[in-house]
Design goal:
The protein is an alpha/beta fold. It is built from 13 helices and 22 strands. About 35% of the residues lie in helices and about 25% in strands. The termini are far apart.
Length: about 475
Amino acid sequence: MYPDLRLFIDGQWRKTADDLAVVNPATEEEIGRLPCAARSDLDDALEAAVNGFRVWSRTPPRDRANLMRRAATLMRERQEEIARTITLEHGKPLPQARLEVIRGAEFFEWDAGEVMRTYGRVIPAPKGHRLSVHRQPIGVVAAFSPWNFPMSQPARKIAGALASGCSIIIKAAEETPAGAFHIARAFQDAGLPPGALNLVFGTPSDISEYLIPQDPVRLVAFTGSTRVGRHLTGLAAQNDTRVLMELGGHAPVIVCEDTDVETAAVAGAVRKMRNAGQVCTSPTRFFIHDSIFDAFAEAFVSRARATVVGNGMDAGVEMGPTANHRRVPALAALVEDARDKGASVATGGARQGTEGYFFQPTVLLNVHETARIMQEEPFGPVAVLNPVASLDHAIAQSNAVPYGLAGYAFTNRADYIDRLVDEVEVGNLSINTLEASMPETPFGGVKSSGSGREGGTEGLENYMNVKNVWHSAAIA
């Protein structure tokens, strides 16, 4: 069921001399080999992207939109095949993988519509003159996608680039490469011109440090940790290259005293364990009004404890393993540190089983502000539940981290909602829901959670230059 992975350069698939193992995190068995790009492959990809940009940027917008829709249709038709490869390499339950395939297709469908709406404008001008603003594709994009969403994360970047008329070289995650592979296959079958989309794999630092300083690259698009994002931003700055950065988060959830406690608690526990907590918008730091804290904690812990953990291919499984061997000891260390600083472990707190990279659904209560997990995103199935005395206290605690990607709140009070909208420092705020984004909404962070936006009408702005044209009817 797992594909024969290859690089995709200039419209052709190619093998390489060097490769790495792709491992099923539920069984720790090798399921495939990942070809690693040599510098000669990267040089070929750059040349292909330059040539591909010349063709694709001059392709009429309607034709670009139609081709993107054809590729999205192929992804939908291949949903089951793609979803099974995602579950094999990532571990997430198969129903969640199926939904991810559809979400990836939706990014292409939305941006295909945006192709026709990259409007410029005409500005009132003195007699004999015309002032106009034009939007033009920026050029070659170097993009880097993470391992937590093998299909939808590369889809976001490829969709934005191709919709704007850019060509793109995307380096997909070495742990979960098949989603991007299937995207490239769909675009090849849809008739995308050679070089408009190029897919490479390999050691992240080797590829980024070679590609980013190259003159043809005019935008670096990255999703991943703040630490790596800052490093890549520094590389890009040396060549005055624009960046689009979607970096780490540490999402707060404010639970006010007027909310439906049971509903909020169950929703929070279910969403926290989705994708084994490996989501940059995952609700993690719960700040609950102390008048409802005990009832909320009881309902949350009960639902977290009931989470069905297992191989994502098995029916009824709600949470699969963490995606790689690094996550289990990292999560255990965060839990132990919190316990040492006085937190109580209401459920979980350790590896589950002896095969696969499973970690128990974990809930920590009354975590001291000096614990590492209060500042470091766990990126795993670990939730923090702390009581707060007031909305003031909850907002202050929510903002007490360098991150600002997503935030959540449960309340029905209009005055509370006004304050939350104004004062919580995040790029995406959700009230009485734990949904963070859709293809038609802009997604991105503030503070150390990055810059720029993906999705929505704002999503193509990063991929385009703005040109002002002053046309005089007579030579001055």
